[in-house]
Each structure stands twice: as structure tokens, then as C-alpha cells.
Amino acid sequence: FFLGLSGGQKKRLSVAVALLSRPLVLFLDEPTTGLDAAAAAGLMKLLQQLAASARILIVATIHQPSAQVFASFDNIMLLARGQTAYQGPAHRVAPYFASIGHPMPETATAAEYMLDLINDEFTSAEKVNSVVAQWQQQDRHANTQASHITRPIRGASIYQQIELLLK
């Protein structure tokens, strides 16, 4: 089925197969793993366009996003040791960390900096604990914009799903 396809083509084909059933939500675990920077950015741009045009909610785990991949995110959730360190619009992550006393260095990208800040392999455990505690204390999760969560989405009817299963 996948013979002769590049890594990027395999990833795109896997996503296309998943989209055949017109899901309301598409969960992707590390969709950019094994792809070069250009292929990863291209795949994420495609997913962003699909989410908007097909009204599909796409949830993806991405371990170390490049700056280009990070730029394709609408909303993010950062976890530090299984606890939320930030959740909200991707473009607000750097201002949020600056507001709690952790401004991003001018030489860093948001993707690099946030991972360095919440990973105790790169910073102290105390700093990670502080970031998590400040998130919980400020109750930032209440500021999630409902319009991003509750926008209408369209999925396949039960008949279309059964037809696809029987093929």
C-alpha cells in the first residue's frame, strides 16, 4: 500500500485515508515525525487549511515543532510533567510567559523558548513548577474563547460512514 512513497507522501496519504470518513475530530499523534522541515511545514499548512475548509477539529501532538510548524498552530496546550503550563492562542504564548516573569530572549523562537521553559531537562525543576503553579493560580484556562471551541462542524452522516465501512 505504501511501497514507493516518500515519508511525506505516506503521512499525507494516512491523513487523507482518515479524512475519507469526514470525521468531526481528527487526532494525530506526531504527524511530523520523520519528515524534513519543508515536508513538516507543508503537512501542517495542509492540515490548517483542511481544518478551516472542512470544519474539522484537528488535535495533534508535536514534540519539538519548528518555527514554521509552530506558526501553523491556532491554539496550543503546553504540558509540563502532565500538568497544563499554558493553553490558548499560539500567538499569545510569548506575551503570557513574559507577563509571568519569563520574557523570551530576542534570539529565540517561541517554539524553542516555550519548550526550554517547561522542560526540566533544560531548566530547573523549580522554574517548571513555578510556571505550572502560575498558570493554575491565574486560572488562564477560563479565558479560552468559546467561539474557537463551539464553531459548527460538519461530519459524515451515519449512512456515509456505513457505506465507507462496507466498501
Q: How would you describe this structure to a colleague?
A:
The protein has 167 residues and is of the alpha+beta class. The chain folds into two domains: 72 residues, Rossmann fold (3-Layer(aba) Sandwich), CATH 3.40.50; 78 residues, no CATH class. 48% of the residues lie in helices and 14% in strands. The protein contains eight helices and four strands. The strands form two sheets. A two-stranded parallel ribbon has the order 1-2. Strand 3 and strand 4 form a beta hairpin. The chain is elongated and about 55 Å long. The model has no long low-confidence stretch (mean pLDDT 82).
Compact description:
The protein is of the alpha+beta class.
Q: Number of DSSP helices?
A: 8
* DSSP summary, beta strand count: 4
Major sheet: size, sense and barrel closure?
A: 2 strands, parallel
- Provide mean pLDDT, rounded: 82
User: What multimeric state do the chains show?
Assistant: single chain
Sum up the overall morphology in one term. Answer: elongated
Order of strands in the sheet with most strands: 1-2
Strand content: 5-15%
List its salient traits.
single chain; 167 residues; alpha+beta; Rossmann fold; two-stranded parallel sheet; two-stranded antiparallel ribbon; 4 strands; 14% strand; elongated; ABC transporter G family member 16; P-loop_NTPase
